Amino acid sequence: MKKHEENWKTLNSTYLFKKPWLTVREDSVELPNGSVIPSYYILEYPDWINVIAVTTENKFVFIRQYRPGIGGIHYELCAGVCEKEDTSPLVSAKRELLEETGYGGGKWKKYMEISANPGTHTNTTHCYLATGVEKRSEQNLDETECLTVHLLDREQVLKLLEGNKIKQSLMAAPLWKYFYENK
To answer: Where are the domains of the chain?
Structure first.
């Protein structure tokens, strides 16, 4: 292995901020070439999930909600945090889809795993494809959630992607993969 392909060595770690939804760590690190970065910041998050959910009528289950980080209302896949009490990311994905949209059932498969930013984020996003989902219940939203459910056809979703209207990269990536594989 070449020197530039080796792991970095952590010399020191200090937590600057520690909350359930965000933990910031400052590391002092030594690179394989001997260079030292005295302050390298790592964001620790729990793992996340998202779901491409397709109904028995071949409609895609989307949500729409306000996103304060970019100041707008956007279409998104159902997504959420892998809670500690969930026994697996799949359990988290099924729970989130049912809570946020009222849809469930169907055939589920792990679709891909991606990272928001492997340079600074510790977590993984587990993407699932759920086909043949059906309306099972009403939404069961948390106090902090305010979103609407939308059933979109293939052409509507492609138009959103092509028009750069799906802003969340962790959702656009699995959707582009889906449309590439399902031409």
So the answer is: 3-44, 48-181
Structure tokens at 79: 């997504």
Q: What is the DSSP string of the chain?
A: --GGGSPPEEEEEEEEEE-SS-EEEEEEEE-TTS-EEEEEEEEE---EEEEEEEETTS-EEEEEEEETTTTEEEEE-EEEE--TT-SSHHHHHHHHHHHHHSEE-SEEEEEEEE-S-TTTB---EEEEEEEEEEE-S-----TT--EEEEEE-HHHHHHHHHTT----HHHHHHHHHHHHHT-
pTM of the predicted model, to two decimals? Answer: 0.92
Consecutive 10-residue runs of the chain (183 residues): their mean pLDDT? 80 95 94 95 96 98 95 96 94 98 98 96 97 96 92 98 96 98 93
**Residue 86 backbone dihedrals phi, psi, to 5 degrees:** -75, 135
Domain 48-181 fold: Nucleoside Triphosphate Pyrophosphohydrolase (3.90.79)
Q: What is the bridge-based pairing of β-strands 36-44 and 107-114?
A: unpaired
Is 161:179 a contact under the CB 8 Å cutoff? yes
